Amino acid sequence: MVLIALLIGASVAMGAVLYHLRAKAHERLLAGEATTPTRAPQVAPVEQATLLVANDNEDTLDTRILSLPLPQSPDMRARAILGKMMDLYAAPGSSHTVSGGATAIQQVFLLPAGDPPTIAAPALQTAHSQTSPELAVVNLSSAFAAGHPTGIETESLTLLSICATLHANLPRVAEVRFLVGGQPRSTLNGHADLTRTYLTADLTSVAGANR
Fold first, then answer.
1. In terms of DSSP bridges, do strands 198-199 and 105-112 run parallel, antiparallel, or are they unpaired?
2. Measured between alpha carbons, how far is residue 131 from residues 98, 109, 170, 171 in Å?
3. Ordered alpha helix ranges (H), 130-209
4. Alpha carbon distance 145, 173 (integer Å)
5. If you write DSSP's letter for every residue of 94-149 in order, what string do you get?
6. Nearest CA among 140, 120, 199 for reference residue 164
7. pLDDT per residue over 134-166, tens digit each?
8. C-alpha 27: how far from chain center
């Protein structure tokens, strides 16, 4: 009987201690919530973006104006715009059916024109005039390149739409180079040349064909 009484007493005491600790923890939680300032999540402002979307039926680039939340960083802005265009390509009923969506664009680096297109491009940036021409290095995902429909026309339209869209939104982009998975590659998927530098000035007639 004495042992049972001691056990009951110990159980009651432990319950009281646990209740007290729980109450103190709850008070600390409420105090932390009261002193932590509430911050609204940062949302990129919505701006107009010009997309030059490939049209397989007409073999042209169609102009589409969309309102998108765009970051202030030019590199991130370029990636967001190209990602939206890739989402359009992956959508049902697309005029240029290509899978992958926004994840196809891994990075976009903006450098002074003439810099080498390496994956370490940001570390190579140097001070230059705000009006100097720029080189855009677009790093495509390996999965996107491997799954891209093969053929010179469809591959070329994808590359030209990327180049024209970059220039339409970032007029200083005069040259575009491509990497795949961070590495140089000879073609997109067997046809369109990825070893060359694309000059955006040469795309004016193509981009304007169906505006």
1. unpaired
2. 34, 17, 11, 10
3. 142-147, 152-169, 204-207
4. 23
5. -SS----GGGGEEEEEEEETT----TTGGGG-----TTS-EEEEEEE-HHHHHHSP
6. 199
7. 999 999 999 999 999 999 999 999 999 999 999
8. 43
Please work out, in degrees rounded to the nearest 5, the angle formed at the alpha carbon of residue 39 by the alpha carbons of 34 and 45: 170
In angstroms, the Cα distances linking 4 to 7, 16, 18, 148 are: 5, 19, 21, 77
* pLDDT tens-digit readout, 81-109: 999 999 999 999 999 999 999 999 999 99
CB-CB neighbours of 104 under 10 Å: 25
Break the chain into its structural domains and give their ranges: 1-39, 46-207
23-76 tens-digit pLDDT: 776 666 666 544 445 555 556 789 999 999 999 999 999 999 999 999 999 999
